[in-house]
Amino acid sequence: LTAAEQAAFDAVVADDGRIEPRDAMPEGYRRTLVRQIAQHAHSEIIGMQPEGNWITRAPSLRRKAILYAKVQDEAGHGLYLYSAAETLGADRADLLDALHAGKQKYSTIFNYPTLTWADTMAIGWLVDGAAIMNQVPLSRCSYGPYARAMTRVCKEESFHQRQGFEGMLTLVRGTEAQRRMAQDALDRFWWPSLMMFGPPDDASPNSAQSMAWGIKRFSNDELRQKFVDVTAPQADFLGLRVPDPELRWNDERGHYDFGTPDWDEFMRVVKGDGPCNRQRLEARRRAHDEGAWVREAAAAHAARRSAVARA
Length: 311
Ligand code: ACO
Fold this sequence. Notes:
Helices cover 67% and strands 2% of the residues. The protein has 311 residues and is an all-alpha fold. It starts with a helix and ends with a helix.
């Protein structure tokens, strides 16, 4: 970057403006965005698996139609995000290769199993709730294509969160067995949901620089706190108990106090040793291999169209 280009970039960021694909940008900024957007895209498409697992067993036609729509939305989010990464010069095929080789990460949350129907509802309520908390600020991030992709993603995530909460409400108002199923799902998904925000601030190597570049607007711990503040009263409303003995409202701070997630477990899952890591990657690789003919057909079709256009 020349000094003038660096100064122009710094001015846009300082002014809360948007960096666009053709603008000059520091190589570290580009690399950080490709890393984060790719991880985000991978999370969306791997995230189709835990809930996709329940489409054939949804308890009613209405629930099935909603779940179908939601899982398809996640696929769409993956596509917007891979496209956003491509505006930075990344190649989608390379990003997928890196995912399949275990070289690029995806969110730890999707390495936990969905054992019951209530798990799919808890995912909507908690996981999509956490995703919104994290992604609404990203719609104001300094990189234009990523910020714009978040607008529609967040609207859809908000539908996902509401359907999950409404599904939990239906369960807690049902039989005692249904209420217990909802509590069990909350017990298993609470802590992994808090881990979605990433490591604590003092152990987050990328945060300071990403905040300075206007990619992150809030730190990992700030977003985690916001999530707990919004979600704890929702659990009360459902009549469910959050599995954290330290959770209580702190009048002085104006926030909930809460316990510490098991960061050793988080690191194990990040490194590939969670309950479903192997299963998720294997299913993803298989889906990719089985989709090879679609990619080939699309490429052949595009080549023919451009040949026709040239003729
Ligand atoms: N799961 C897997 N990896 C994680 C997680 C997580 N829950 N949290 C942090 N990490 C990784 C980071 O990607 C980073 O990886 P690196 O080794 O490539 O540098 C490393 O752990 C250290 O963390 P941070 O320094 O805090 O990383 P970062 O500044 O990127 O913050 C965060 C992490 C908050 C997840 C950020 O990348 C982000 O906002 N991403 C976009 C949102 C997203 O990916 N959501 C996916 C789940 S939501 C959904 O799909 C429905």
